[in-house]
């Protein structure tokens, strides 16, 4: 097929799929309906470690998960969720939330937009960390 035909066909096809997904309301970012939804998202990724509790943030895009093995976090990643255990993680307060430094090369850090009270609550539930109040890094990944 000539490039002069293939290129417009690909561009129109991708554009059409994007518009269709938006019109069908399948492009809306994930928001957890309640704590049970956050716990279910955790248990999809960690079925052997059941959640015993969840603290949902006000924006409903992340939750601190409590388990018998220690805390974890689930957060919205587009229309899906991701979850990580916080064993070995460090937390640092940032002006508009909390930065989690995870011992995981697939998600080395996660910025959570939390208000002051939420950040205090989350920090009180996390294991002690040496650099919790230091600003280690200015780059952010938003949840």
Helix content range: 25-40%
Radius of gyration: 19 Å
How would you characterize the largest beta sheet? Answer: 4 strands, antiparallel
Q: What is the arithmetic mean of pLDDT?
A: 87
Give the CA-based shape.
elongated
N- to C-terminal distance: 42 Å
In N-to-C order, the SSE pattern is HHEEEEEEEH
Task: List the uncertain runs.
Answer: 130-141
Please give the number of β-strands.
Answer: 7
Sequence of strands across the biggest β-sheet: 1-2-3-4
Write up this protein.
The chain is an alpha+beta fold and about 140 residues long. Helices cover about 30% and strands about 25% of the residues. It has helices spanning about 5-25, 35-45, 115-125; strands at about 50-55, 60-65, 70-75, 80-85, 90-95, 95-100, 110-115. The strands form two sheets. It has a four-stranded antiparallel sheet, with helices on one face. The protein has a three-stranded antiparallel sheet with strand order 5-6-7, covered by helices on one side. A hairpin with a 4-residue loop joins strand 2 (about 60-65) and strand 3 (about 70-75). It is elongated and about 60 Å long.
What labels would you give this structure?
single chain, 143 residues, alpha+beta, 3-stranded antiparallel β-sheet, 3 helices, 7 strands, 29% helix
